[in-house]
Each structure stands twice: as structure tokens, then as C-alpha cells.
TrEMBL record:
This is Amidase. Keywords: Hydrolase. Coiled coil: none annotated. It comes from Streptomyces cellostaticus. One of its GO terms (cellular component) is endomembrane system. Its EC number is 3.5.1.4. Residues 24-464 form the Amidase domain. GO terms for molecular function: amidase activity.
Length: 483
């Protein structure tokens, strides 16, 4: 039997039953990577010798009677996580030789749970793109169409999962970096509630691995099924033992409902700032139909929904104000000059990005205050609804575009071009207020490309969108092997 596309849950059961060993699973995964990854380029830093040693150790532990959540299961890790003895570059040529001295907290949790780490997966330069390519490791291709991107910044992890390179992976998400690659590659991913999973050791080189609480960014799980997402989230979730973990212990509330017919869901497929392409709109429609058929209460409008335009503007301001914090003074002054030349009437997202790059601290405090109002609005919203279904990006995966100036890139939405970064508005809907969001497959486009949607849930109620994802998987299907 070939195990490479089995779920982590299935592998765990087979290992417990003695039907296969971790050494066998690991050898099979490595053989597949060596055979297929030349065309995909998902695994940028293989660690096969240590993986085989870890697999042997897992088999010995099981023989002693041990049983941990991921014992013996092959996994991959996004390149941006520190793993002792391996390079952490974030795709930055200056740091191509930087070696991590210790494991990131999430890598430690994977290993403590018994996972076998096959290696690290590719990322874009500085994690700052919706594609995954860099000068050090090259370009990661979409397993469904090698001419197209796998997404970013966790594009290597998504491509690895879609290709059968390990059962699970861990990534991160600031601007859809878990959800967009999942959508493009036809897999599952979960952006946890802000602060739910510790991120120490997911830091740009050569920075120290400090327990910093990021403003928008999270770390999270990627898998080929919704149940596997929950399995991995349970390993990842919890405060950093150096800070909040000193005093607090995590207990996530259960999902609000167990049956599809008990869910109350708002379905969105229109955004005031960017159109939704026909393929993605169809994917949202398939999920909406499945919800209705399953007896869920489905609405298309609600006065409780926070304003989408203001939400997108706030997200843009918070995201891009932080992106230039370490720019050289000369570059920052050039941005100030360009921003001063903007017309007061220019309320485009492009203008919002430029103005945000030169925010004062006072400006940022004002934006953060408005974010708190949105969070309050979402709390009120989730007294009447359990989840929101909406796009992740307006289109399926698009052809590789390596124009060094992203401002000159465009995305094609049903034949009309739009600024490249405008597609982030849907990702920001959950990111700005810090809500959990689960990316789920929702069929394929007419060209045969995967299409995904996201399920946004209440803050710290991550099990609610995850359970909804599991129920939808039963109704409309889930991961399919790329043809």
C-alpha cells in the first residue's frame, strides 16, 4: 500500500495497529520527494538523514508502549521556522548561510508530539509575497499547473502537501499566507485566533528567537483534511512557556455545534473594493448550497457585519505601516515624499498602502482604536451567527509573475486587471481583528484549478470553523490528488 496521500489520522491508526512503521513511512515519503520534487521545488532544505533517525526513534518509542499525537508521522516545516542545525534564510540572499542554533517553539512541539520532520519548505523573499520564489531556492510551482504559483508565503508547504510530501505542515499567516496557498493548491489550512499559538523562533535572520507578540501575524497548521487540521492545531496551540505560559493554561471551547443544520452562517461573495472572479464565486456558491442542503441557516446580508471597506482600509494601514519599520532612512524619506504628493481625493488601496508606510505613532494608535471598534462589532455579529463563508482571494492560482516591483504587477479577474495587492482585502477580513479562519477546498475552476473558501469564526472559538470545515468536507468532498 502507498501511504503518501493518507491522512495523519489514518497514519496514526496504522502505526498503532502495527500495519506500517515510521521508518517505512519516512522512506516512502523521501522516495516520493526525490522522484517528484524536481518539478515542484517545494522542499528547499531536506533533512533526510535526521528524519530517518527520528523515524527509527519513533518506532523504538512505540515498541516501548509510547503513544503521542504525531508519533512517527512525517511532516514538513516552513523555511521561516528555526530548526537547529538547518539554515533559516527567509529567502534573503544576505542570510543564505545563517544557521539556527535552536528549534522554534512550534518545531519543539512537533518533535515532542513525535513527528518526523522531513525538511523545510520554500518561501518568498522575506515572506512578503503571494507567491513563493527567491534567489536562494528558486520558484515553487503549483502541483496542479507548474506554470502557476503555489501561493505564498507558505507556498512550499501547500505544494508539499498537495504532492504527498508528508502528511502535515506548519506555516504562518499575516496576509493570507496559510489560506491563499491552501486555496491555490486544494488543501486545508487554519489561521488561528491571534495569540493562540506561540510564534517564538519564527523570526527573520539573524534576529534572536524572542517571545514577541506580533500585531497581525500568526502561525498555524496545514493538512489534507479538516480533522488533521484540528489534530495539528491541538499540538501547536498554547502560550509561550516563557511568557503567558507561566501563568495560563489553554482550554479552547468546543465547537458551537456538531450538526450542519444547527449552524448560522453568513455567506459573502462580493467586496466593495474588488470584484470576485467567476470561478471563486462558483466555489462560494457550492459551499452555500451545501449549507442550505444540510439545513443550516444561511443569510447573504446582515446589518451586524462590520463595514467591509473600512475593514480593508484598516487592515491595509496596520499591515503596511509595519512593513517599512526597518527600511533605511533614505528609502523612508522617499516614501514620505511620494505620500505627500498624493491627492487628498485619492482613496484607493494603493494610496492607503503608501500613506500607511509613513504613519506616525499617533496615526497607528488611531487605526488601532478603530480596530478595537471592529472587534466589538464582530463580537456582536457572532451572537447571531456562527461563521462567515467568503473568498480567500478573487481568483484561483495565477501564472508566475516575478516582476521585481510588485506595484507593477496585476491580477486578472475575468479579463480585467487590478493592482496586485488589492487581492489581500479578503485575507484581511479575518486578520485585522485577529479572528480564526479555516481554508477549505470548494471544487475546481473550469480550467481544473483548485478553488477554496475561508470559514471565519469567533475569536478563540477556533473549533467552530474547524468543525464546520469537517462537516462541509463530508458534503462536498475535500482534497483531491493533482492530475
Amino acid at each position: 500500500m502507498e501511504w503518501n496521500f493518507s491522512t495523519a489520522e489514518e497514519l496514526a491508526a496504522a502505526l498503532r495497529a502495527g500495519e506500517v512503521t515510521s521508518a517505512e513511512l519516512t522512506d516512502e515519503a523521501i522516495a516520493r520527494i526525490e522522484r517528484d520534487d524536481k518539478a515542484i521545488n517545494a522542499i528547499c532544505v531536506p533533512d533526510f538523514d535526521r528524519a530517518r533517525a527520528a523515524a527509527r526513534g519513533a518506532d523504538q518509542a512505540r515498541a516501548r508502549g509510547e503513544d503521542r499525537p504525531l508519533l512517527g508521522i512525517p511532516v514538513t516545516v516552513k523555511e521561516s521556522y528555526n530548526i537547529a542545525g538547518l539554515p533559516t534564510t527567509w529567502g534573503i540572499p544576505l542570510h543564505r548561510n545563517y544557521m539556527a542554533a535552536e528549534d522554534a517553539v512550534q518545531v519543539s512541539r512537533l518533535k515532542a508530539a513525535g513527528a518526523v520532520v522531513l525538511g523545510k519548505t520554500n518561501v518568498p523573499l522575506g515572506l512578503q509575497d503571494i507567491q513563493s520564489f527567491n534567489e536562494i531556492y528558486g520558484t515553487t510551482n503549483n502541483p496542479w499547473d507548474h506554470r502557476r504559483t503555489s501561493g505564498g508565503s507558505s507556498g512550499g508547504s501547500a505544494a508539499a502537501l498537495a504532492s504527498g510530501f508528508g502528511a502535515l505542515s506548519i506555516g504562518s499567516d499575516l496576509a493570507g499566507s496559510l489560506r491563499t496557498p491552501a486555496h491555490f493548491c486544494g488543501i486545508y489550512a487554519h489561521k488561528p485566533t491571534l495569540g493562540l499559538a506561540a510564534n517564538r523562533g519564527m523570526v527573520p535572520p539573524p534576529g534572536p528567537a524572542l517571545p514577541v507578540e506580533y500585531d497581525l501575524a500568526v502561525v498555524g497548521p496545514m493538512a489534507r483534511t479538516a480533522r488533521d487540521l484540528t489534530l495539528l492545531l491541538d499540538v501547536m496551540a498554547g502560550p509561550d512557556p516563557l511568557t503567558l505560559g507561566v501563568a495560563y493554561h489553554l482550554t479552547l471551547p468546543p465547537a458551537r455545534h456538531e450538526r450542519l443544520r444547527d449552524f448560522r452562517v453568513l455567506v459573502l461573495d462580493d467586496h466593495p473594493l474588488i470584484p470576485t472572479g467567476s470561478a471563486v464565486r462558483a466555489g462560494v456558491g457550492r459551499v452555500a448550497d451545501a449549507l442550505v442542503d444540510g439545513g443550516a441557516r444561511v443569510e447573504r446580508h446582515s446589518p451586524l457585519l462590520p463595514d467591509l471597506t473600512e475593514a480593508a482600509m484598516l487592515y491595509t494601514q496596520l499591515l503596511f505601516s509595519s512593513s517599512v519599520a526597518r527600511f533605511p532612512v533614505e528609502a523612508y524619506e522617499q516614501l514620505r515624499t511620494r505620500a505627500a504628493q498624493l491627492s487628498a481625493d485619492d482613496q484607493s488601496l494603493d494610496a492607503a498602502r503608501l500613506r500607511a508606510m509613513v504613519f506616525s505613532h499617533r496615526d497607528w494608535i488611531e487605526a488601532d482604536s478603530r480596530r478595537q471598534l471592529h472587534r466589538h462589532g464582530w463580537r456582536q455579529f457572532f451572537t447571531e451567527f456562527d461563521a462567515v463563508v467568503c473568498p480567500i482571494t478573487p481568483t484561483p492560482a495565477y501564472p508566475h509573475d516575478h516582476n521585481p516591483d510588485p506595484r507593477e504587477r496585476r491580477i486578472d479577474i475575468d479579463g480585467v486587471e487590478y493592482p496586485y495587492f488589492d487581492q489581500l482585502v479578503w485575507a484581511g477580513l479575518a486578520t485585522m481583528p485577529g479572528l480564526p479562519a479555516t481554508a477549505v477546498p470548494a471544487g475546481r475552476s473550469p480550467e481544473g484549478l483548485p478553488v477554496g473558501v475561508q470559514l471565519i469564526g469567533p475569536m478563540f472559538e477556533d473549533r467552530t470553523p474547524l468543525r464546520l470545515a469537517e462537516l462541509l468536507e463530508q458534503e462536498i468532498g475535500g482534497f483531491q490528488t493533482p492530475k
